Amino acid sequence: MILPDNETRIDLLNNEAIAATIIALLQAQRAHPVTVGVHGDWGAGKSSILEMIEAGLGGSGDVLCLKFNSWRFQGFEDAKIALIEGVVTGLLEKRPVLTRATEGVKDLFARIDWLKVAKHAGGLAFTAFTGMPTPDQISAITNGLQHILADPAKLATKENISAAIEGVKSVIKPAEAKNVPEEIAEFRKAFDKLLKDAGIKQLVVLVDDLDRCLPDTAIETLEAIRLFVFTSGTAFVVAADEAMIEYSVRKHFPELPETTGPRDYARNYLEKLIQIPFRIPALGETETRIYVTLLLIGAELGEADEQYAKLIAVARERLKRPWESAPLDFAAIKAALGDVKPAVQNAVTLSDQIGPILASGAKGNPRQIKRFLNTLLLRQQTATARGYGNDVKLPVLARLMLAERFIPRLFDQIAFAAAAHPKGYCDDLVALEAATGEKATADTKVGKAKESGDVAESALVTEWLASPQIKAWSQVPPPLANVDLRPYLFVTKDRKDYFGAASALGHLAGVVEKLLGPKLAVQSLDADLKLLKEPEAAQVFEALRSRIMGEDSFMTAPLGIDGLSVLVKTHPVLQTNLLDFLGALPVERCGAWPVSGWQGVVTDQAAATRLTNLIEEWATSGKKSPLANAAIAARKMKSRSA
């Protein structure tokens, strides 16, 4: 069971209300040009709303609806010309009464050809003036113009470029426009006439996936829309993430006016083009739980099932007033479906378990929710196919994946500890679940506490309890304190193999995880670290070093640096290992943090001398980076004090 992640006309979010509002607006503005924006984050449902608008407008009568996907033309066609030509071509396809043979259509395509050649020739003006253009450049000019010579190499002269433009202009009626502004005005007149000839009173163009395009493509598409803005009876509905379009504006116009600031200018650019914006609201908890329930039940029953359609109708009634409504409970589902299959019951149970935290974790984004559910179901099916499906319970896997997806550091800490435990437990979860009111049995809490010692004083648990997000996660059922997590970690190995490190470290894996904690937490581990034997301390150091280097992020002090410092301070024999680690850092990609902070850690005379030499190497490396600059400043300060 995999949930399809594409646009759909089956509305599970009550977004038909937005589509209906836009359709009513378009119908009220039929005599005037209008641009409507459908805004929302990636995966919010913009494409589905366009599908609903297209279905609502229909394809007959004097209203014509066309779809244009900007992303599909990226890299293959000039974006501005692609939209213009796409609109005209779509118009001809949907209205067979028009043919390419008529004078009006031939005139319109001739003007599009003129715009193609004018754009490319303008870009080649300097090359044509100073030397010979390349065959590839000339090929771009002549592409699609059948009345120009087929061999581009024969056109590599300034005279033949002019001839190409004149050849297109010769198709256009005499005494008409010769420059770009006038040609655009004539194009608008020709396009208006074509709409009248086709009996179209309103042309609605749905522009999708604009926020997937590269900045230049996105801006060129918006510029092409401006060409039609003053054409009567033409409406554009543009689906795009506002933040991505603003980013495209800033990238396309790097030298923006300082008077308003780049963000203000980018926002103004979009607001001048989009007359009426609609923003898709994020899903709240009730809406998320209803959505998840419908998705899971729909996957079991099939979208064409009549009973499922009844359930969608019940859900829509609740979605009208989500602040007053409750999620779809079993009673409502049974009333709509009649006999409830076990698979449907499981879907309802799973929705109840993961809906609340999924609402906040996915930030109300439908696509994020679908991706999470697909990964969950696929992993469970994989476990079944490999023969240990009975050991992987869907609610437990779902809860672990919530941490993996939305609190990855917590998941890593639990995973490494459980992989190293002989029974697959994470002892610190006992204290966490007990402290946050988790409904684990008293026997379970007491039993785990006896096995693991005074876990309530664990620095890791203290760190977890300081996080509201982790505390909320800890209250999601089912409890994990008495669960062997190893099968669940094995099925998540597509992300990271926790067993390799755990098998090598054994009981030391938990120590490594604790040393990856924040500064205040690791400083309290001094007494525990003193209990390590020298070979064990060296093993912990190497594991910690590998984890830090594996993150490949050094502009700020990575997690684990404070742990290394405390470990080396407790076991001075590791000072050489520490200097080896510092010497391996990439100077050009490193922040200033390695230069200082080693007082009381690097105490051996030989190690201190080596650190001084290392700072000198960074200072004289000739590389421009915060680390090199900090080393230069440290060297100057030392010379002054001397």
TrEMBL record:
Residues 16-381 form the KAP NTPase domain. Pfam families: KAP_NTPase. InterPro entries: KAP_P-loop (IPR011646), NTPase_KAP_P-loop (IPR052754), P-loop_NTPase (IPR027417), QatA (IPR049673). This is NTPase KAP. It comes from Bradyrhizobium arachidis.
